[in-house]
Amino acid sequence: MENVEFRLPQGTLQLQQEKAAAGAPLIVVAGGRRPDPQWLHTVGQLGTVIAADRGADHCKKAGVVPRFLYGDRDSAAPGAWEEFLRKGAKAKTYPVNKDDTDLSLVFQDLEPGPPVVATGIWGGRADHLFGNLYTLLAYAQRGGTVILADEQELLCYLRPGTRATFMAAKRPRAVSLLPLSPECTVSIHGVRWPLDEAPLTQANPYAVSNKQTEPSVEAESHAGIAGLYFTWKE
Predict the structure, then answer these.
(1) Which among 136, 152, 92, 154 is positioned nearest to 225, based on CA atoms?
(2) 103 Cβ partners below 8 Å, 6+ apart?
(3) Cα distance between residue 110 and residue 31, in whole Å
(4) Distance CA 196, CA 224 (A)
(5) Largest Cα–Cα distance of the chain, in whole Å?
(6) Residues 6+ apart with CB under 8 A from 99
(7) In the Cβ-directed half-sphere of 25, how many Cα atoms lie within 13 Å?
(8) CA–CA separation, 176 vs 163, rounded Å?
(9) What are phi and psi of 103, to 5 degrees?
């Protein structure tokens, strides 16, 4: 088993898995809820930044220059792409009438390798969030290591045999385990209601709104795919 580590402003997430992602992380900025500019500025220093359409606006607000731009440019503010192109960014543009979302275009180009922090994922319409969650789940099922994060919410995918440890700098308001396959077997410790190799199903997703009670939370999927979720939302 090998480790990959994400150092975020709200804490450090370590994933222990059969094959660790290698290299500095990629920071993929999508066009959902805007991350706090200071949070994004800090996380943007961790590795290469890729912006999907309106994600370029989030980068501009945070003073972060993406290396790559993807999308049809139907939602980015006028001038944002041009500014980053002048600063050396490379762009892949697509027609508005296409079958793929801007975020999925990014991940179609990414082979599983470096770990990925995907932000600008949360908030907005439920259908957009659903599409984002399952676009990134498909990447995880291909063997990629990806977390969904901003200053308010964090989710990591636990494939079978993956163990996560989160050491909070700021304790979350709630911790949940979400079944992302029809049936899972999961464990979680460091919380008010621990579980040991317990069944968790989409028909009864009961492992929500738990509370962190120890300095760190540890969770593992023994079978199936689960999502380990933290929220700092008021």
Answers:
(1) 136
(2) 28, 30, 52, 118, 131, 132, 135, 136
(3) 18
(4) 15
(5) 54
(6) none
(7) 21
(8) 15
(9) -65, -40
Q: Is the pTM of this model over 0.90?
A: yes
Whole-number Å distance between alpha carbons of 52 and 91: 10
Can you tell me the distance from the alpha carbon of 201 to that of 3, in angstroms, rounded to the nearest whole number? 27
Q: What is the mean pLDDT of the chain?
A: 91
Tens of pLDDT, residue by residue over 89-136, are: 998 877 666 667 888 888 988 888 889 999 999 987 898 899 899 999
The number of CA neighbours under 13 Å toward the Cβ of 44 is: 24
Residue count of the chain: 234
Quick: pLDDT tens for 128-144: 899 899 999 999 999 99
Find out whether 52 and 198 touch, Cβ atoms under 8 Å: no
User: Per the structure block, which two tokens stand in for 115?
Assistant: 């770990």
Calpha distance 197→188 (Å, rounded): 9
- In what side-by-side order are the strands of the sheet with 2-8? 2-8, 11-17, 163-168, 216-223, 183-189, 195-201
To 10 degrees, what angle do helices 126-141 and 102-109 make?
10
Beta-bridge mates of residue 93: 71
Q: Which two tokens stand for residue 172?
A: 């979350």
pLDDT in tens, 19-62: 666 678 999 999 899 999 999 999 999 999 999 988 999 999 99
Report the distance separating Cα 65 and Cα 89, nearest Å. 8
C-alpha dist (Å) from residue 33 to 75, 121, 195: 13, 7, 32
